[in-house]
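Our preliminary data section would be incomplete without showing what the modeling component actually yields. Below, a chain of 255 amino acids is followed by its predicted structure, encoded as tokens that our downstream tools consume directly.
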Amino acid sequence: MSSNDRQMNGQPRPNCFLDHLELPPARKDKQRLARLRAAWKASWEEGGFLYQRWEELYQARHASWHELAAWIKTAALFGGLSLIVMMVDTAGDIASAALKGLNDVPATSAGDGSGLWGTVDHPVRAFLADQAAHLAVAPAALYAFWQLTGLLGLVGGFFGNAGARIAWLLFGIGSLAMIWTAAPIGGRAAATGLAALMWALASIFALRGLTLRPIVHNHPPQYQFNPALHLHATLPAPAPAGDDLGPDNVHPLQR
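Predicted structure:
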């Protein structure tokens, strides 16, 4: 056994120092980072994964829905559904808070019914208070909801919303019915007529631009009809050249 294989301090000397050498952690991290950087650059080169995705996203501006890439459609649908769910959840919370607030509105006095507005407003308050006695809701909440419906119908109808205009029409019809029912018998017709005039004046703004005349669209026809008469005549075939001299049985006279 050579001197290189002898024991030193009771421990055998390794045959090769490089066999037991380990790279430090810093060098491993650098190698891993270098591989990641090389993969990132390769993905952005022409034909790479990220390069193709970016081209599909760039071309999506001028493409129709059927021409979009599948991953863009999936992302758009997922984002749209998530937005709808969030909006519905938020709208539910808002509606719940609004209804709870209307239910907690303190009762207000019905007023004495004096003045033009009191002539219209007092029967509505009296009707809602009488109906609320049979319902699990406060009269003030019904009155606040009635006011909110009229306000939304007026504002939404001014901006041309069809649903708001339908709500405005139902609001007016319901208000006239409540006034006719709860107004004093002697002034019932006057109170209802006054309310109808007020509602008609407010409808100038709520039903702005609405017309009952039919809309006629004059568009040129997309096709043109040209009648034509086609005659098909069959011409006889031309006769042979020998037939011009007559039949063959005619011979010249001979002496």
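The chain is about 55% helix and 0% strand. Strands lie at 7-8, 11-12. Preliminary results of this kind motivate Aim 1 of the renewal.
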